[in-house]
Amino acid sequence: MPKSKRDRAVTLSKTKKKGREHKENIVSSIRDAVEKYNSIYVFSFENMRNLKFKQFREQLKSTSRFFLGSNKVMQVALGRSESDEMRPGLHKVSKLLRGDSGLCLTNMPVEEAQRIFNEYEDYDYARTGSIATETVELKEGPLDQFTHEMEPFLRKQGMPVRLNKGVVELVGDFVVCEEGNPVSPEASRILRLMEMKMATFKLNLICRWSPEDFEMYQEGLQGSDIESS
Question: According to its UniProt record, where is this protein located (predicted)?
Answer without folding.
Answer: Cytoplasm; Nucleus, Nucleolus
